Amino acid sequence: MLSLPPPLYRLAPASPAAPNLLSGAAYFTGMDAAYHPLLKDPVGEVRNVFGKKNAKEESARGVWEVLRKVAKERGVDVEEVDG
């Protein structure tokens, strides 16, 4: 549909005192970031989420929302896929 590779997820402990609470975001790099202005900045930012899997999943939900906006602007109907 949009021909973009998956973003890079950069997650790090929010505090040395709480290493299981993670903060971070997803990043599109290089030409992928140039594809659309919304992809140039960090996407799906999360703060103080417990566990790496939970943090990545929450960030991915934010990425999905941004990609839905990009697809809509490009005239791609993602509602059929968004079961």
Task: List descriptors.
alpha+beta, 3 strands
Strand-helix topology:
Elements: E1 8-15, E2 18-27, H1 30-34, E3 43-50, H2 52-73
Structure, explained:
- It is a single chain.
- The chain contains two helices and three strands, in the order E-E-H-E-H.
- It is an alpha+beta fold and about 80 residues long.
- The chain has a three-stranded antiparallel sheet with strand order 1-2-3.
- The longest helix has 22 residues, at about 50-75.
Which structural class do the helices and strands define? alpha+beta
Strands in their spatial order, largest beta sheet: 1-2-3
Mean pLDDT figure: 90
| Quaternary class | single chain
In short:
This protein has 83 residues and is an alpha+beta fold.
